[in-house]
């Protein structure tokens, strides 16, 4: 692929690699672990056809040295081509984040829910709610860190046409954030359908909140065929699966989250180890930047790439069920040492 340049990047080339290379000495994210001065020197003069540069890729990781709750990726893609143009950086980041996933590996998929076992027998005294979300990027457009106002509005227009054509079980109501009443917004947030304006530095430093709420909306309800009719499918390839902005979401783009009460287990010395062995991750119920309140955690799959949708949700179902059993043991004052699982 021949990468095009942009004028701003050309201007930066007046300065040496040493003058432009970011100080990552105190950083702890996947990008900082991978990026060397040699890689930066090789990539700094390149840009994707839409003008995204390696400095754009790494900016959020430069601005956010670390995170108190999770190991962050520290970089984003600005378009589909970013994963090819900057592969010397992004391939090792993907491998580091996704357990050794190699550039030659092919992603797996399985959307047959009948292959999922259990999930309907979780104890409601501990499991408060569950949600499965996924992400898709529309082919032919750039990604949120890079798209313009006009492009974002074009995506919204196309999405409105696609979503308004749905009928039956897929029919829903389209809520544009621009013009939504305070009462509607508060109710949708309370119902866990709507997120508030991104305030996390991980998102704002990546340019994800620009012009908020312009061009943003929510549909509460198969839309890919409509996009294809307009020559816009979803970004996908057999190596990376569904292509999304953050390398952590490549593959399925799926996050199966369960709000579960674990006040005893969460204070156990081996709680973090248990999560790691189950290939799960935790966050507060208010999102990635929040802590637990009252021992309630949002537990979800840590993996997106290299395993199927069913396999990822199955890890959540099985893992949460085991942790609830551990919680009950601890409530009785019993040991859980014999229940700690092997590495998944």
Structure write-up:
Residues 126-330 form the Phosphagen kinase C-terminal domain. Keywords: ATP-binding, Kinase, Nucleotide-binding, Transferase. It holds the Pfam family ATP-gua_Ptrans. Residues 12-99 form the Phosphagen kinase N-terminal domain. ATP binds at residues 129-133, 192, 255-259, 283-288. This protein has 344 residues and is α+β, with helices and mostly antiparallel strands. The chain folds into three domains: 7-97, Orthogonal Bundle (Transferase Creatine Kinase, Chain A, domain 1), CATH 1.10.135; 113-133 and 248-339, Creatine Kinase, Chain A, domain 2; 149-233, Glutamine synthetase/guanido kinase, catalytic domain (Creatine Kinase, Chain A, domain 2). Helices cover 33% and strands 10% of the residues. The protein has helices at residues 7-12, 17-20, 30-34, 37-43, 54-63, 82-85, 87-97, 149-164, 182-190, 201-204, 224-229, 271-277, 309-331; strands spanning 127-133, 173-176, 217-220, 236-237, 241-242, 255-261, 280-283, 296-301. Strands 1-6-8-7 form a four-stranded antiparallel beta sheet. A two-stranded antiparallel sheet has the order 2-3. The protein has a two-stranded antiparallel sheet with strand order 4-5. Strand 4 (236-237) and strand 5 (241-242) form a beta hairpin. The model has no long low-confidence stretch (mean pLDDT 86).
